[in-house]
Design a protein that fits this description.
The chain has one helix spanning 26-29, and strands at residues 12-13, 35-36, 53-58, 62-68, 94-96, 99-101, 110-116, 129-135, 140-145, 160-166, 169-177, 192-201, 204-207. The chain is mostly beta strands. The chain starts with 11 loop residues before the first strand and ends with a strand.
Length: 208
Amino acid sequence: LNGIEKPIVNAVKLKKRPRKDKKRDDALWSAAEEFSLSYDNKMAVLLEEKTAKARVGYDDKNLYMLLESPNPYPGTSSGKDDSGLGGGMGHQLEGLDGVYRDLSIETKESFWVLLQPGSKHGDSPHRDRYFITVDYTGNMTYIKYDSHGKPDKGWKPKIKADIFKSAGRWGVELSVPMKGLSIPFNAGTNWRMNVFYNIPLEDGTIVE
């Protein structure tokens, strides 16, 4: 979208880590800045009827994200696979250098996060980046790309996802361990992040 400014959001230091209890921890996130995900109709027209929301927090050990859908929790469940690769090898329709992408997650309501620790003035094309997806059932995929853009087959982060339902919405609290990230010594306090909300449709996929 042309002319849309990239938001700058302040991550808040949380006093404690979110609990895994299938509930949004309102008191914990109250001080965190909320931002909306831009949503277009694929014709460069912004839609504002309803948008997904996100907040970012951290402590000494983890990066946290509160991601909230504008929609009710879907009425069906596909089950959960704790492998971190989604719904099994039957869904692994494509691969890249041996790192498989679970395309089944693109047919479900889900959040996608592209994260790159580093300064806004740094050499971003040559720094590690991380792509994480989580759907409404808690299924996750995660891929690390190294400084040359090659997937790291050995990256197995202990990311935790707590799915919750509230007031006609669903959402997830994500916990991403810092020790699993390659943070450059000059990373600074400004990190790059893209957050998407995937809305599947019968004739394709729309992404916020």
